[in-house]
Amino acid sequence: MSLSLDLAAALTPLIGQAFVPAKTITVADGSGVTLSVDVTSVESLGVSCEELRLDVPSLSAATLDVLKKWGDALCKRITYLLENLGPLEYDAQGSQVLIR
């Protein structure tokens, strides 16, 4: 399965529920990529979340330039939100990109 299908399957039983504090739902694929979402409510047409974390092990030793390209490309692919996403911070030592 894909991360999106796995996440949908994990969220389906939670439809109609709200969580305080947020409930963390984590799914992973066969290559080690892990998606964690801190959800505050789940409805049939959408999900409200506080934070989404994507761990990509193949990028753990990536250079800052690779992280910038990856973060920019990811932001361009996400077009369905009310506000645009964009890279906010790059952490070369921690191999992290903060996107808001």
Summarize, please.
The protein is α+β, with helices and mostly antiparallel strands and 100 residues long. The protein has 2 helices and 5 strands, in the order αβββαββ. It starts with a helix and ends with a strand.
Describe the protein's architecture and organization.
With 100 residues, the chain is an alpha+beta fold. The protein folds into two domains: 1-55, no CATH class; 58-100, no CATH class. The chain has two helices and five strands.
Note the run of SSEs as H and E.
HEEEHEE
Mean pLDDT: 93
DSSP summary: helix tally: 2
How far is the N terminus from the C terminus? 27 Å
Q: Please state the CA-atom Rg, rounded to the nearest Å.
A: 15 Å
Shape: globular
Reading side by side through the largest sheet, how are the strands ordered? 1-2-3
**Could you give a short account of the major beta sheet?**
3 strands, antiparallel
Number-wise, the strands total 5
Domain tally: 2
Helical content class: 10-25%
Low-pLDDT segments, ≥5 res: none
Strand content: 35-45%
Structural class: alpha+beta
